[in-house]
Amino acid sequence: xxxxxxxxxxxxxxxxxxxxxGADIFExxxxxxxxxxxxxxxxxxxxxTRARFQERHFRLIREAGFQxxxxxxxxxRHMSPDPDRALRPEWxxxxxxxxxxxxxxxxxxxxxxxxxxxIGEDPxxxxxxxxxxxxxxxxxxWPDTVCFELLNEPCKKLTPALWNQWLREALAIVRQQHPQRxxxxxxxxxxxxxHLEELDLPADDRHIIVTVHxxxxxxxxxxxxxxxxxxxxxxxxxxxxAEEVNAIRQDFDKVADWSRKHQxxxxxxxxxxYDRAPLEARVRYIRxxxxxxxxRGWSWAYWQFDGDxxxxxxxxxxxxxxxxxxxxxxxx
Length: 332
Ligand code: BGC
What we know:
Elements: H1 5-17, H2 25-32, E1 34-38, H3 55-64, E2 68-73, H4 89-104, E3 108-113, H5 116-121, H6 123-138, E4 146-149, H7 160-177, E5 183-185, H8 188-191, E6 208-214, H9 218-221, H10 242-262, E7 266-271, H11 279-295, E8 299-302, E9 312-313, E10 318-319, H12 321-327
Parallel strand pairs: 1-2, 1-8, 2-3, 3-4, 4-5, 5-6, 6-7, 7-8
Antiparallel strand pairs: 9-10
Helix pairs in contact: 1-4, 6-7, 10-11, 11-12
This protein binds beta-D-glucopyranose (BGC).
The site of beta-D-glucopyranose has 6 residues, from loops.
């Protein structure tokens, strides 16, 4: 484990703010509060000198009023080809830099394994890397304010049945060293709200937070997005009519029912609308989704800080104020 003065400062700050291992899992989820996804597609992982995200961004995120960062990790390309799949020292250095700076700024951290595409295409071909990742993460010490998210959006060939087996194996690895750390797990089919019923969690593990993602209606949130085949379909409005809002409420009520029945807290780990949607419509949509999540006591993380779906404009070096205020109405 890396020890530095930064950890000590972080520990002091975080005693007061973080999820604190040992607390009730609903309380820990409440403390995750409002978050933002960061670093997933930043060149920082290939070359620190080309980083978009800088140390000061952690402070800016905290000062704006966010409580949590969900760090989207693509570690497979940084693993050794040897059977131990050891992660490169440079990768660890970047991760330690991110976690210690987030902690020093008073932010909770979610370590999110974001290799869903590789795994979804060929689960068996990537299973050793999946387990090796959690073995290596679990072997280290982390501040109490760090949560683990086993896999972003299990999908395609990682079927619900297969995912229910995999999550048990990864959880067993994590639990050897981290018996009470919050672990975040969501349903297959891209963490869809419509597939929660197929998620089967170990009943005796009461330190799990359940996650879902919300991008409905896709025609609106992903208009213009090439990766969903919608590059030519733009100009779609979201006006916040009773019908549009009710569609969200019905989906969220279904999740809330599941949450009550299974006694699991909910983290809305991704939501947002692609930048090609009209700005005013994005603001209406994002505000509605965030408030509906909060009304049900969920924590959430916006997709994403920069790159696309942006709440922070790297070029202009400033917040996209309308999006920020939709997320955090009392942002300074
Ligand atoms: C993916 C991104 C994508 C976003 C919205 C995320 O989980 O990692 O590549 O832009 O979902 O579709």
